[in-house]
Amino acid sequence: MTNVGKNNELIVITEGALITALALALSFVPHTTGVSAIEFVYGLIPMAIYALRRGVKAGLMTGLVWGILDLVLFGFSHGGFLNLFQGIVEYPLAFSVVGLIGLGSKPVKKAMEQGKSGIGLILLYSALGFFAKYFFHFLAGGIYWGTYAPKGMNPWIYSLVINGGSFVANMLMLLVLVFALNRIFKQLIIVKN
């Protein structure tokens, strides 16, 4: 590998570490709505930008690190860890698949380089990553958290309401931010050589 290749890899890893730190820091901002467990996960926004900027491989790896750190900092200490399988599904796995947003890296960059906003593509690929994350939470909710469903309610319906609600809430948050930050998204996603 040339020095330029090593240098570029180091930049990607450094950006990933900074994004992970930012995503974790944003976890300390109150983010549950009302009395429900529907949550805004503010760290999804910098993760989406990073995955679109650096691609799927970097996005998956950064999401994995974010999930492991979230498990250590929040899962173990706040009762979010029930057993090994649930912990793996809801933390490393669910957080890493957010990196699937990176599948849109090339199409979004191409659209932006052609003078288009790329908003539709950003929302489409972000929806893919967000949906994947909440799908894993939905599975874990139905399997492991069913006892917390209101009495008489099917645990799968309860999991769908909570995790589907969180998916919708985070997509709405992204939608607002994409339109509000539309002018600077190109600068955030296109890598300058």
Characterization of this structure:
It is globular and about 55 Å long. The model has no long low-confidence stretch (mean pLDDT 91). 71% of the residues lie in helices and 0% in strands. It has 193 residues and is mainly α. It has helices at residues 3-26, 44-54, 56-75, 84-96, 105-113, 119-144, 155-180, 182-189. The longest helix is centred in the last third of the chain and has 26 residues, at 119-144. The chain has one domain (3-189): Arp2/3 complex 21 kDa subunit ARPC3 (Orthogonal Bundle), CATH 1.10.1760.20. Helix 6 (119-144) packs antiparallel against helix 7. It has 8 helices and no strands.
Question: Can you lay out the helices and strands and say which pair or pack?
Answer:
Elements: H1 3-26, H2 44-54, H3 56-75, H4 84-96, H5 105-113, H6 119-144, H7 155-180, H8 182-189
